[in-house]
Every structure is written in C-alpha cells, then in structure tokens.
Amino acid sequence: MVKKALKSLMLFGLSIFALTGCDVPVLQPQGPVAEKQFHMIIWSSILMLFVLLTVFTLFGFVVFKYRANRANDDDYEPDLEGNTKLEILWTTIPIIIILLLAIPTVITIHDSMKNPSPDKKPITIEVTSAEWKWLFRYPEQGIETVNVVHIPADRPVHFVLTSAGAMNSFWVPSLGGQMYTMPDMKTELWLEADKPGRYDGRAANFNGENFAHMTFTVVAQKQADFDKWADKVKAEAPALTMKEYKKLLKPGLVGKKVYSSYPAELEHASDMDMPGMKGGEASEHGKH
C-alpha cells in the first residue's frame, strides 16, 4: 500500500513537471489579468500538494506503526476513547486551508472584474456569440469583425458580451479567464495583452455539433499599428448590411471577416434596448 501511494505521488509530481514544459496557455500568462490568475493556480496547487503530502505521510505512518505482527495479541482491542486535541487539530486545519484558498480567490475574482490598468484609457469591444462564430463590434471605430479581434497591446480592453442564440463562454486562455455570454443579457470581461502577439480564443461551453470549430484569433498590436489597421478596414472593407448580419447569426461556419461599418440599428446593441431583444427573439430577428 505504501509503495502504491508513493508511486501515485511520483506520477502526480511528474505530471505537474511535464505540464510546465508544454504549450499550456494558462501557464504562460501574457497579460496582468492572466498573471494574477496564474498566481492563483500556483497557490492552489501548492495548497493541494501540501494536503496530499500530509495525507500520504500520515497514511504511511499509520500503516507502518499499526501494522499486524506477531507481537500483537489476538485479543487486542483498540482504545475507543476520543482525543480532544487531535479532534480540534483535524477540524482546525481544513478551516485554515479553506481560508487560505478562499480569501485570495475572492480578491483575484474581484480584481478581474475591473480595469487592470486604471491609469490607461480602455477600449470597448462588443462581443456576440452565435452558432458557430464570434462577432466583434468596435463602437469607437465603427467597424465589425467576425472570428478575429484586433486589440491594442498594453491597453485594457473592456469586452461587453451577449449571445444571439445558445449560452456560451468567451475565453482567451493566454489573457485571462472565461466569461459567459447569454441571450437577452449583458456580461463584462476585462483583459489586457502585455505585448503584441497572436492569441487563440475559443468557446468554452458546448453548444452543438460545430462547437470545436467555434474559435477566434486575438491580434494584439501596438497602438499605432492598431489605428492603421482600423483605418484600412474603414477604407477598404465592405459595409455590414442588416441582411448580411442576420445571415451571420444563423447556425453555420464562416471564416474571418471584416466590415467597414455596421447598420445604424445595431448602434446601441450593448444597451440591450433593441427591438427583438425581449422574449428570446434575438436569433429570430437577427438582433442582439
């Protein structure tokens, strides 16, 4: 039993060690939000490892100390009297562990719900999940993209999220945790990229046969490059018509798309006051 327990412990340790060398985005944070969550993962892992080591150590000690041997009397009966000190100890320790895990978790969650860099002006991007694609609207620039989102690096991004159909989950592992998108509702997520780069985004909530293909690319650029890209889109890309918008909201796969503008009816979509938003009619009317 002791050898089996030690073998399991070694396999666990090797798994953790192997993960650190793999391309695991959540273990390679590329922004302040992801970094805080990464530290929380490490802290949680340390606490879990402490508990695991403690349990296996006590297990081995008890198995060895109270193992069967010839010296034991066949009529031996254990002392069933309680031990107050031990009972207090094994009740107090779990409470301490829970507090050590809960307090930093609450602080991290609270921090992730606000601007990670208050001294920097954020950019707002409205996100709509549909089957099976992601739509991104830039109110400041007046443009829209599908399955690709460009953001300025080293600048906080305020994502305002909703869904045109099934509930889903917006996730960019390298930049931070996920946030749900829901029809007729608005949720918010703050992310920030430390430097220019390309990051994978994905749907983290199963929503049908093409769920695995519901991915998008985050392109973080220097502010000057981002501005040039936005100007180029406005000058060269086609306009998004309401007919095309309704088509995009229908179930199906599409590639990356960019539009120089979007219909005036969608101007205040993030305020959730558009006709067709009530009563789950977003998909039917193509509005969100």
Number of domains: 2
First-last Cα distance = 59 Å
Radius of gyration: 26 Å
Secondary-structure element order, as H and E? HHHEEEEEEEEEEHHEH
Categorize the overall geometry. elongated
* CATH topological fold name of the largest domain: Immunoglobulin-like
In short:
Helices cover 38% and strands 20% of the residues.
Explain what you see.
The structure is a single chain. The protein is α+β, with helices and mostly antiparallel strands. It has two domains: about 1-65 and about 80-110, Helix Hairpins (Orthogonal Bundle); about 125-285, Sandwich (Immunoglobulin-like). About 40% of the residues lie in helices and about 20% in strands. It is built from six helices and eleven strands. The chain has helices spanning about 1-20, 30-65, 85-110, 225-235, 240-250, 280-285, and strands at about 125-130, 135-140, 145, 150, 155-165, 170, 180, 185-190, 195-205, 215-220, 255-260. The chain has a six-stranded mixed β-sheet with strand order 8-5-1-2-3-11. Helix 2 (about 30-65) runs antiparallel to helix 3 (about 85-110). The termini are far apart. The model is unreliable at about 270-288 (pLDDT under 50).
